[in-house]
Amino acid sequence: MQSVYSYQDYRKYLEDFYSLKKKKDPLYSYRSFSQTAGIKSPNYLALVIEGSRNLTTANIQQFAFGLKLRPDEIEYFEALVLFNQSKTAAEQSYYKKRLIHLKWNKPEKIQKSSPAEILKEWFSTGILVLAHGRDMEEAIQKCKIELSISEEAIQNTLQKLIELEYLQFNEGKMQISSQQITFHDPKSISLAQESYLYVQVEQSLKAFRRGYKQKKGKFLSQTLTVPPNSIDEIQKAFTSFVENLTQRMDQQVVFGCEELAQINIQIFRPQF
Which one of 88, 148, 184, 261 has the minimum C-beta count within 10 Å? Predict the structure, then answer.
């Protein structure tokens, strides 16, 4: 399957995507896609491919979810849809320029890794970011201040990140080798992710207790009464929000590493 960046017609991309999925799994169907994307109509993908239906700004995100696109690919896919569906010459010209810009600025390299390697410790991603643009000693000192962990843990993690080529040296300074890191180990991703997220929530609780007493940070708790069948809709809305925020951060011209921030959104049914 070619990258979405190589397409000028989103309907052709959808057709090729479906054909490949069907070839790999004869049981895969238009209904399968709709269920993954959270679309009520089981044949909506077929109607879009044949040109009977267009995509709306709302279901572009649903389709992107069903296609399992990365944040940068979602942005290109959205621009491609709007380009193909443009009704005026001005719209078409705008989105054509947008596509060219996104294509030229796509991530040069997407690092793929077993999740266990990077999710093993809750602070691995923090060290990865804080080490960027610093030499070894500077990175160690910065991590000790920001993360409050032992120097030994920092050194071991830095060494592992260098061995895995997440960090590379350039004129004595460490540089993150990839703009994005994706995980591709379906057999262990859920277990590694569960452990990682559990520790992240624990870290959030510690930050909350520390920050709330010192009146630092913003904390908001909102309890809503919602129909049971609305939970999925709410979760998708928050997923879309996070994806859009990720895209905005990815568009930063200068990559900064002076401060780490964690955003936590928990949606759950209280146990009384």
Answer: 261
Spatial CB neighbours of 118, under 8 Å, sequence gap ≥ 6: 124, 125, 128, 164, 166, 181, 183
Q: Which residue has the higher pLDDT, 125 or 54?
A: 54
155-167 pLDDT, tens digit per residue, is 988 988 888 778 8
- 69 Cβ contact list (under 8 Å, min separation 6): 4, 77
Q: What's the pTM?
A: 0.47
3-state secondary structure the chain: CCCHHHCCCHHHHHHHHHHHHHHHCCCCCHHHHHHHHCCCCCCHHHHHHCCCCCCCHHHHHHHHHHHCCCHHHHHHHHHHHHHHCCCCHHHHHHHHHHHHHHHHCCCCCEEEECHHHHHCCCCHHHHHHHHCCCCHHHHHHHHHHHHCCCHHHHHHHHHHHHHCCCEEEECCEEEECCCEEEECCCCCHHHHHHHHHHHHHHHHHHHHHHHHHCCCCCCCCCCCCCCHHHHHHHHHHHHHHHHHHHHHHHCCCCCCCCCCCCCCCCCCCCCC
Exposure on the CB side of residue 175, measured as CA atoms within 13 A: 10
* pLDDT at position 271 over 90: no
